[in-house]
Amino acid sequence: MSNKSYINRPNRPLQIYAILFLVFLYAPVMFLPLFSFNDSIYVRFPLNEFTFKWYGELFHREPVWNALMNSVKVGVATAICATGLGVFAAKAITRYRMPGKAPMVGFVMLPLVVPVIIFGVALLVLLSQLGIPLSLYTVTIGHMIICLPFSIATLLPRFEGFDGSIEEASADLGENAWWTFWRVTFPMVFPGILASLLLTFTISFDEFIMAFFLTGTEPTLPMYIWGQLRFPQEFPSILALASMIIAASFVIVFLGQWVNRDAAFAAAKKGD
Amino acid sequence: MSEQAFISIQNVDKYFGKFQAIDDVSIDIGHGEFFSLLGSSGCGKTTLLRMLAGFENPTNGEIYIDGQPMSSVPPHRRPVNMVFQSYAIFPHLNVRDNIAYGLRKQKLSKAKRYEMVDEMLNLIALPEYGDRKANELSGGQRQRIALARALILKPKVLLLDEPLGALDKQLREQMQLELRALQRQVGITFVFVTHDQEEALTLSDRIAVMSEGRVLQLDTPSGLYERPRSREVASFIGTMNFFDAKVREAKGPDLVVEAEGLGTVRGNSGDRHFAEGDTVQVAIRPEKFQLSEAKPNGGDPANAVQGKVGNAAYLGERSHFFVEVAGGGKPIAVSAQNKGVKSSSDDTAEDVWLSWTDESVVVLATD
Fold it and tell me: Which pairs from A131-135 meet CB under 8 Å and 24+ separation?
C-alpha cells in the first residue's frame, strides 16, 4: 500500500500552478538586478557587456547616501516606536478583559486595509493645520500608523502562545507587574519583538506614499529614487541601488521569520 | 472571625458580569490544616482559590489571612504561594532558576541561593536536576518543581489548584502520599482544590463541598461520607442508595419512617427537623447492607428485607450487587467484601436478605 495519504498525495497541476505563481510574482523583480549589471543606460534587450560600474558610481553619489541615512533613521525610529506600542497593544489584547475590545482591535488594525494615500492626505492636512513643519519626524509618525498593525499581528501569536498563568506565577512568587514583564513576558516574546522590529523597519524603509506627502526638505530613499527617474543617465545606478535594497529586504524578512519560527508551535503546545 | 482561624473567608460574593461565581461563602481555615475545596467543574472552587491568591477580588465580603484583610493587597504582596494546575514552570529558565525565582528580593548571595535550591531539590527528591531545562521534565517532575518553587519562599499558606489532575493514576496516588507527608513536614496551611472526591477524602483534614458557588457542607472526610447533610453531597461523595420515605414518628432527631422498598426504618436526622407525616429521603451506603441467604437477625423482620440479585459485578476484593426488592423503585446497590472464595455459579439470580443497622441510616430532606 502507498504510504502517502489522500491529503499529501502529490498533485501535478497544483505544483505547476505554484511554480507559475512564483515566476509571475518574482520575474519582474528579477529584471532590476539583471539590468543593473548591464553596460548600457537604456533598459532594453539585447543586453550589452556585464559591468559593476553602476554599483561603483553609486558609491560616489553623496545624495544617495544622505537619502539612505534618512531612510535608516526613519526606519529605526519607526521600528522601535511601532514595536514598543505593539507590545503594549498585544499584551492588552491577549491578557485583559475590557469592554469594547473587539471594535478597539479592529480600529487599531484598520490601517492594514485603509489606502495609505488617505492616511497620507489626512495627516498632511492635520499637520499643516497644527502648523507643524514637514520633516523626517512627520514621516516617522506616518510610518508608525502603517507599521503598528503589522507589529501587533506579529506579536499576537507570541502572546497567545504562552500560558497566562506563567505571568500569574511570577506575581504569585512576589514580582510586581514591571518585574514580571522584565523577567518573564519579555524573554518569552523576545523572538516576536525581534521579528516585529525587522518587519516594521523593512516596511518603513520601502514606504513611498506616506513619505511623498509628509517629507520635508530631506528625502527618504524611495523619494530620492522617484526623483531620479526623470534623468535617464541616472537610471542604471538606481537599478543597482534597488537591487541592493531587494537583497537586504529579503535577508531581513527571512531573518525575522526565522527568529519567530516557533511561534505557531508555541501556540499549539500551549495545552501541555 | 474566630480566634484560631488562620484564613477567614467572610461572606464573599463574586460576580463575573451578571454571572455569580461565588454566593455568600464563609469559611474558616485553621493553621497547619490541609483543607480541600471539592466540587465539579464550574462550582467556584478555583475562583475561590484565585481570590485567596489575589488574582480575583471579591465583589462583596472580605478575606483575612493571618488576621490581615486582603482585598487591597496585590498578589505579589500576599503571604501565599500557589501551585498552578498547569504548573506554570518558566520555560526559559532551568530548574534551579525556576525554584530560585522568588528569591530575588531577599538579596542573598549566589552561594546561599544555590544552597537553598539544593535543599529544596532534596526535599522533592530531585537532586542533580538543577541544570535541567524545563522542557526536559516529566509531568510529575514539573509538579514537584512547582511545589519547590512555592515552598522555598516559606509561605504561610500554600494554594494548590488541582495539582495532581494531569498525572496518571499510579503517579497521582504516589504524589498524594508525598504531598500529605510534605504538608506534615513543613507544617504550613494547604488549601487544595480538586474535583476528585477520593483524593479529597485521602488528603484532607477538612473538606468544603461546593456547588454553584455555594458551600454545601464543610466537614471532615468521615463526616461527609457518613453524615452527609443533603442529597447532593451524599451522591457526590461515593455511592448512595436513596429511598423515598414518610415520617411516622418523630422524637427530636430520632425518627421512625416508612421507606419504599425497605419498610419500617429507624434513623437519625442530625440537626434537620422533621415532623410526623413529612416526606423525607432515607440514604444508606452500599457497604452498610449485610447480604445473607438465610433470614437475618434471628428471624426478626425489623431492619431486613428480601430481594432478588439482579446484576452483579466482581471487582476482585469486593463485589457489587444490584438487589431488586418488592415495592422499591431502583435496584439497591450493595457492596460486599469477597471474604470467601467465589465460584462463578454464585452469579445467578437468587433470593437474598438485606439487613442494616439503625446507625447506618441517614435521613435527608427531599430535594
Answer: A133/A216, A134/A214, A134/A215, A134/A216, A135/A216, A135/A217, A135/A218
- What pLDDT digit, counting tens, does each position of B167-208 carry? 788 888 888 888 888 888 888 899 999 999 889 998 999 999
The residue whose grid cell reads 499529501 is: A8
Q: Which three cell numbers stand for residue A30?
A: 528579477
Main-chain dihedrals φ then ψ at residue A62, nearest 5 degrees: -55, -50
- The beta strand positions in chain B, using DSSP E, are 5-16, 19-30, 34-38, 60-65, 68-69, 80-83, 157-161, 189-194, 206-211, 214-219, 241-251, 254-259, 263-268, 279-284, 290-292, 304-314, 318-325, 332-337, 351-355, 362-365
Half-sphere exposure of A185 (CA within 13 A, CB side): 24
d(CA B278, CA B299): 30
Interface of A with B (CB under 8 A): 162-163, 165-166, 168-176, 179, 183-184, 187-188
Q: What is the CATH number of the domain that holds A218?
A: 1.10.3720.10
Nearest by Cα to A191 from A252, A106, A236, A258? A258
CA B302, CA B320: separation in Å to the nearest integer?
24
Helix axes A62-95, A136-160, angle to 10 degrees: 40
**Given an 8 Å threshold on Cβ–Cβ distance, is B90 in contact with A184?**
yes
pLDDT confidence of residue B191: 95
In a domain, A13, yes or no: no
pLDDT tens for residues A108-125?
A: 888 888 888 998 999 999
Q: What is the homologous superfamily of the domain B5-234 according to CATH?
A: P-loop containing nucleotide triphosphate hydrolases (3.40.50.300)
Kindly calculate the radius of gyration of chain B based on its CA atoms and give it in whole angstroms. Answer: 25
Pick from A217, A239, A218: which is nearest to A228 by CA?
Answer: A239
Nearest CA in chain B to A271: B86
Looking at residue A236, its pLDDT comes to 80
Q: Can you give the pLDDT at residue A234? A: 76
> Grid coordinates 506579536 are at which residue?
A155
Q: Interface pTM (ipTM) of the complex? A: 0.79
List the CATH code of the domain at B239-365: 2.40.50.100
Q: Which residues does B168 contact at the CB level (< 8 Å), separation at least 6?
A: none
User: In which band, very low, low, confident or very high, does the pLDDT at A3 lie, cut at 50, 70 and 90?
Assistant: low
Does A171 contact B76 at a Cβ distance shorter than 8 Å? yes
The alpha-carbon gap from A84 to the nearest alpha carbon of chain B, in Å, equals 22
Contacts of B80 in chain A (CB under 8 A): 172
Mean pLDDT of A46-62: 79
Residue B211 in 3-state DSSP?
Answer: strand
Cell for B190?
A: 494547604
Taking only the tens place, the pLDDT of each residue in A194-224 is 889 988 998 998 889 999 898 888 889 888 8
Q: Give the total number of structural domains in chain A.
A: 1
| Helix/strand number for chain A, H first, E second | 13, 0
Among B75, B85, B92, beta carbon nearest to A188: B92
Side chain identity at B366, as an amino acid letter?
T
Residue A2 has pLDDT above 70, yes or no: no
Would you say how long chain A is, in residues? 272
Domain boundaries, chain B: 5-234, 239-365
How distant, in Å, are the alpha carbons of B33, B336, B351 from that of B323? 41, 12, 9
Is A136 part of any domain?
yes
3-state secondary structure B212-275: CCEEEEEECHHHHHHCCCCHHHHHHCCCCEEEEEEEEEEECCEEEEEECCCEEEEEECCCCCCC
Mean pLDDT within B21-36: 93
CA A197/CA A186 separation, integer angstroms = 14
